[in-house]
Design a protein that fits this description.
The chain is mainly α. The chain has 13 helices and no strands. InterPro entries: EamA_dom, EmrE-like.
Length: 301
């Protein structure tokens, strides 16, 4: 087995760890605010020694308002997504939150004057059709599943927002210190939210805290670390598109481990959404590649 094959296997493992997120959130017994807080708190706690040893000079970026704003958006994303799982099926939640790349493309078009080419437009239309199919299937539970679907969709928008706004900071900072500062601010905002709403931080049971620790270690640390390691050796398009396997794996595990039924409308709508994300992601990758090639040709002309 050569090195590249090992990287592909490692990437598959990263997607698997990411897919555990929805399952762990579902079995956690703590309120969504506490689940989100401890996911970020444990992550920051585990990363702090490495940050202090290797990146303490980057601590000045804590004073930059942009990481603070992005951390707030990340905190809202987690609250909305984790809460959505209380109201709708895991499959619906992970499929709707996977719409984040399409929201990113829309934000780039609206605020960064990026072109909206036919490939991306078709992807957005397909995702809209898929979302409608899933919602029609859930219509009989109007006040329940549809609300959860809306929360997950809103979580996707806030995920796209923090990625879009954070672009400027990411150009100045290495990936690790950027994430550390972002996670720290998210933990602070979530902690403030729990305090304001008088949600207790303690008394949720040792098993629940172990689940929250697993949420920090598995999907957050191991999953995302593998993705960022893989992108150094594999095309960005491959890594980005591999993430589409997350809602598929999560849906399968929810059915297998939690006996969660998957509606036919969810399967059909999910297929439309994931296909739309695939088309839009391929378009976005090709557009970025052409822009880099044009810039390189201009510099060397």
């Amino acid at each position: 087995m050569d090195f590249k094959q090992k990287i592909y296997i490692l990437l598959a493992g990263g997607v698997f760890f990411l897919s555990l997120s929805g399952i762990l959130v579902k079995i956690a017994s703590s309120p969504p605010m506490i689940t989100a807080f401890y996911r970020m708190f444990f992550t920051v706690l585990l990363l702090t020694p490495y940050f202090l040893k290797n990146h303490r000079q980057k601590a000045a970026y804590f004073l930059d308002y942009r990481p603070l704003l992005v951390g707030f958006l990340l905190a809202v994303h987690f609250i909305l997504w984790i809460t959505s799982i209380e109201y709708t099926d895991i499959s619906n939640s992970v499929i709707f939150v996977a719409l984040q790349p399409l929201f990113t493309i829309a934000l780039e078009y609206l605020f960064a004057k990026e072109d909206l080419r036919p490939g991306a437009l078709i992807g957005i239309v397909m995702a809209f059709i898929g979302s409608s199919i899933i919602s029609i299937g859930d219509f009989y539970q109007l006040g329940d599943k549809l609300f959860g679907n809306f929360l997950a969709l809103s979580a996707a928008f806030f995920a796209a927002s923090y990625l879009f706004i954070g672009r400027g900071v990411r150009k100045k900072l290495d990936y690790f210190p950027y994430l550390y500062i972002l996670y720290t601010y998210a933990a602070i905002f979530l902690g403030i939210g729990a305090y304001i709403f008088e949600i207790p931080f303690f008394g949720h049971g040792i098993n629940n805290y172990l689940i929250l620790l697993a949420l920090a270690v598995g999907p957050t640390l191991i999953g995302h670390s593998i993705l960022n390691y893989s992108v150094r050796y594999l095309p960005t398009s491959i890594v980005s598109l591999s993430i589409l396997g997350e809602p598929v794996l999560t849906t399968f595990m929810a059915w297998l481990l939690l006996n969660e039924q998957v509606l036919l409308t969810t399967l059909i709508g999910g297929a439309f959404i994931l296909s739309g994300i695939y088309l839009a992601s391929v378009y976005n990758y090709r557009k970025t590649k052409l822009q880099k090639e044009a810039l390189f040709a201009e510099k060397n002309s």
